Amino acid sequence: MAKLTTLEEFIVDRQQEFPYASGELSGLLSSIVLASKVVNREINKAGLVDITGSAGEENVQGEEQQKLDVYANEKFQAALESLGEVCGVASEEDDDFVAFKSKEALNGKYVVLTDPLDGSSNIDVNVSIGTIFSIYRRQSEPGKPAELRDFLQKGTEQIAAGYVIYGSSTMLVYSTGHGVNGFTLDPSLGTYYLSHPDLKTPSNGKIYSINEGNIQLCEKGVQDYVEKCQDEKKPHKARYIGSLVADFHRNLLKGGIYLYPATTKAKNGKLRLLYECNPLAFIAEQAGGRATDGHQRIMEIEPKELHQRTPYFIGSEQMVKDLEACL
Ligand SMILES: O=P(O)(O)OC[C@H]1O[C@](O)(COP(=O)(O)O)[C@@H](O)[C@@H]1O
Ligand SMILES: [Mg+2]
Ligand SMILES: [Mg+2]
């Protein structure tokens, strides 16, 4: 059997692609890898340990925090803080960004935004969930605490982004702007191996993913597009897991479109621009796909707030273009 490439070997092999100081990217990714393994271990025994159910608090989104949301947030933050290259983090679970104060971290050149646990409504029912991350160079001066402007950068400024999917197997998929690669965790060795090299998404597909329970609240153009997907002459498959990472990952591999439009109840939709939409848009585009709010490229949106939401349409290029043509 051909020798499998570990994630660590792959990062070193591809270090020249990362325009900044050698070792910084591997350091950044290795801390995310470490935290993902710790979180994965808890998820795998979710029914046995006191990690399921509500944490009894609400986050800034007004959503009830799950224990695993809080646990994952702590683990990723601790791993990134201990690194010294990251001067601050922002996450779905924290009202405000966190500027690290240690001497090394003050000189850290990167900020990281995370959705520590994506698909929270699926935690207790053993359905795939994930973690999403987005990495930027800081804009503020090294040596001083991170500032809000370090986080409010357009998606086009991302230097790396990716996600971890905790499913039947655990995978980490990321890009530094030079293609997309997927790694599968061998739980017995605790090592990620390259399993999906140079991922490309089909330019067209047959899968559409939308919470149809909201369809009456969506604009006519979205209803028209969904009707097209239900055309008996060219039937598509409706697939909706309710975990963005899992729906995105399936559609990335098979070809498809994920839609979370604005509704009469949620004028800007549900998903968060900075730590859900931008990082997956980065991956989608690197794999040949497309991501828009229906009218503009997601990564061109100028962020104004840390937790701002946006309507979201992402997936195979032709399908997203067909959707846009309906709007
Ligand atoms: O239940 P709905 O309205 O269909 O929303 C499901 C969507 O909300 C999310 O759960 C939001 O993410 P979080 O779980 O990280 O809050 C997405 O993963 C998912 O695609
Ligand atoms: Mg999420
Ligand atoms: Mg979340």
UniProtKB/TrEMBL annotation:
Entry's localization field: Cytoplasm
Catalysed reactions, as listed in the record: beta-D-fructose 1,6-bisphosphate + H2O = beta-D-fructose 6-phosphate + phosphate
Binding site for Mg(2+) 2: D115, D118, E276
SUPFAM superfamilies: Carbohydrate phosphatase
The entry's keywords: Carbohydrate metabolism, Cytoplasm, Hydrolase, Magnesium, Metal-binding
One Gene Ontology CC term in the entry: cytosol
Pfam families per the UniProt record, alphabetical: FBPase, FBPase_C
Residues that coordinate or bind Mg(2+) 1: E92, D115, L117
Cofactor binding, per record: Binds 2 magnesium ions per subunit.
Top-level lineage group: Bacteria
Binding positions for substrate per the UniProt entry: D118, G119, S120, S121, N211, Y240, Y258, L259, Y260, K270
Main subcellular location of this protein, as a coarse class: cytoplasm
Pathway in which the depicted protein is active: Carbohydrate biosynthesis; Calvin cycle
EC number: 3.1.3.11
Domain Fructose-1-6-bisphosphatase class I N-terminal: 6-197
Cofactor(s) this protein requires: Mg(2+)
Top EC group: hydrolase
CDD domains, sorted: FBPase
Keyword Transcription regulation: no
Fructose-1-6-bisphosphatase class 1 C-terminal domain span: 202-326
GO biological process assignments: fructose 1,6-bisphosphate metabolic process; fructose 6-phosphate metabolic process; fructose metabolic process; gluconeogenesis; sucrose biosynthetic process
Entry's Gene Ontology molecular function annotations: fructose 1,6-bisphosphate 1-phosphatase activity; magnesium ion binding
Subunit structure: Homotetramer.
Stated family: Belongs to the FBPase class 1 family.
Name of the protein this chain belongs to: Fructose-1,6-bisphosphatase class 1
Organism: Salibacter halophilus
